[in-house]
Design goal:
Chain A has 204 residues and is α+β, with helices and mostly antiparallel strands. Chain A is built from 5 helices and 11 strands, in the order αββαβααββββββββα. Classes of the chains: A alpha+beta (204), B alpha+beta (339). The interface between A and B is medium-sized, with 37 and 32 residues.
Chain lengths: 204, 339
């Protein structure tokens, strides 16, 4: 369902009428934003949106897209991986294996949302699954790679966060002056590639 | 050609209509909290609707105009002064080089817009000049104004100010050295008195809330909490409870979405809102009432009135018609056939 909505959203965005100002797939839902003041708005915008979505779902089903694979370098150095020991203790996995397991599987971007560029990435190894931290950190550094439940998030900016930080990427998750601004889009396949501290500094 | 910021005010940012079509990248449209007041301010100086203006919040900046400029101040009623005189509001004002504008505190409403003929010289980022404070980009370096900032105007601004003001020549009056006109535009979004009423539709999770909470939402009085901002208005009042319903997967949000986090105090999502959210949504404020809501200062009281989607759309059409009439009247004063 998540993948079908992402594909439909991409189809819809390419063929969007002028009055449609946004197509936003989320984890298990999709929003079509429209300009209520637009001269070309159909008399029944909801009905028009439903029809557009149905057509896009059908088109995406017929020609399923081939999602790109994005490699995201991550330094799992303890200096960045603030919670890796806690995660290891809580899961019974050795700290070095937390990084290994995280980088071993292929992940998938389920949603981009909340803040500009912030990806919610599914596909976390079942052995690493933990609930959110009881007390959120008031400040999580940009680029931090953090896990909670079955997902990974990469923080685009310094914000508060309740997920367990297990590493940091040297790449900009969101850069408004880059085209495209987002490192990751909904539907992308993701591989986390472990890098050393010196490689991290070189890539930064 | 610039405006020198002597004092920045509480929160002054450049905002144009907004940044559309990027919500799937996590970027909310942003733009003005009160889009109606921005539209009026731009029209009053002969600008197109896409131009950026300065959004002023509660306490205005002190500005030195280094060159002549044609400006308009709309939205919240500020105690704006220039020299010893009150600064005229809701109308075009020709300010001469060397003029100081002290925008002052908001007496009524909370967000004012200062538009300048010709617009500000500021490169669009991701298609808009709006300041995105949460992600720190757009507008002036992605931030609010600071003392000492120089806000450059578009190179053609002085010529446009002169040409446009000349069109108003027959209507001009001079009071305390400020050249303005005898007429003014209506303010369409300022709260008339206490307890404004915001129309809202039942949200997606409305039925999951306990009966007392559903009643409280529409029947009780709410106050805007002090920690409200451009991202969202936190409301103080009843505590809303959802009972034992299932966890909600993050869903797309919208301007005016009313979310209720676990603590039970609702949050109305405003211009710089997050694009998705995992909190239950008790209501969606009608788009037509968002600009009025945006004019409420912390501590202000409001109530919600239940409305249907059709009623919300009718409110939108009515507001659009009032704004269009005001814009037509302004264009007529300028002698523009069509604006």
């Amino acid at each position: 369902m998540n993948g079908a909505l992402q594909s439909a959203a991409n189809v819809l965005r390419q063929h969007a009428p002028d009055w449609l100002t946004g197509v936003v797939p989320a984890l298990a839902g999709i929003a079509l934003h429209f300009d209520a003041d637009h001269a070309g708005l159909p008399a029944d915008p909801l009905e028009a949106c439903a029809r557009l979505l149905e057509e896009a779902l059908a088109a995406a089903h017929k020609a399923p897209p081939a999602p790109r694979l994005v490699e995201v370098p991550v330094c799992y150095d303890p200096q960045f991986a603030l919670d890796i020991v806690e995660v290891a203790t809580a899961t019974g996995v050795a700290p070095e294996d937390v990084a290994r397991l995280h980088a071993a599987t292929e992940h998938r971007v389920l949603m981009v949302g909340f803040a500009p560029g912030q990806p919610y990435i599914g596909g976390l190894d079942a052995r690493l699954r933990l609930p959110r931290r009881a007390t959120p950190r008031t400040r999580v550094v940009a680029g931090s790679v953090a896990i909670a439940n079955d997902q990974t998030a990469v923080y685009p900016f310094e914000i508060a966060g309740g997920w367990s930080v297990i590493g940091r990427t040297p790449l900009a998750v969101f850069d408004p002056r880059r085209e495209p601004p987002n490192l990751l889009e909904a539907g992308d396949r993701v591989r986390f590639v472990p890098v050393s501290r010196s490689e991290y500094e070189r890539l930064k | 050609m610039s405006l020198r910021i002597l004092k920045p005010g509480l929160l002054s940012t450049l905002q144009d209509r907004g940044r559309f079509g990027l919500q799937h990248l996590g970027v909310a449209p942003g733009g003005p909290m009160d889009r109606v007041a921005l539209a009026l301010a731009n029209a009053l100086v002969g600008n197109g609707a896409e131009e950026a203006a300065l959004e002023i919040t509660l306490i205005g900046p002190e500005i030195l105009f280094e060159k002549d400029a044609l400006v308009a101040l709309c939205g919240a009623e500020l105690e704006a002064r220039s020299g010893g005189a009150a600064f005229p509001r809701d109308r075009p004002v020709l300010v001469r080089a060397g003029t100081r504008l002290s925008a002052g505190r908001a007496r009524r409403g909370s967000r004012a817009y200062l538009a300048v003929a010709g617009g500000f010289a500021c490169d669009p980022v991701l298609g808009s000049r709006s300041t995105c404070l949460p992600a720190r980009f757009g507008g002036l370096e992605g931030r609010a104004l600071r003392a000492g900032d120089l806000l450059a105007l578009a190179p053609e601004a002085p010529a446009q100010a002169a040409e446009r003001f000349a069109r108003l020549a027959a209507q001009v009056r001079v009071i305390d050295g400020l050249e303005s006109v005898r007429w003014s535009a209506p303010s369409l979004t300022l709260p008339e008195g206490e307890d404004i009423v915001a129309h809202a539709m039942e949200g997606r999770h409305f039925a999951q809330f306990e009966a007392a909470s559903r009643r409280a939402f529409f029947e009780s009085q709410w106050r805007v909490a002090p920690d409200s901002n451009r991202m969202g208005f936190r409301l103080m009042g009843a505590t809303l409870a959802r009972g034992k319903a299932a966890e909600i997967l993050s869903e797309p949000t919208c301007l005016g979405t009313v979310q209720v986090p676990a603590g039970g105090a609702p949050i109305v999502l405003m211009a710089d809102h997050q694009t998705t959210g995992g909190y239950p949504r008790i209501a969606e404020v009608a788009g037509a009432d968002v600009p009025c809501l945006a004019q409420l200062a912390p501590g202000a009281r409001l109530r919600f009135a239940r409305c249907s989607l059709e009623e919300a759309r009718a409110l939108g059409r009515a507001l659009r018609a009032r704004l269009d009439a005001a814009l037509r009247a302004i264009a007529w004063r300028y002698g523009y056939e069509e604006h």
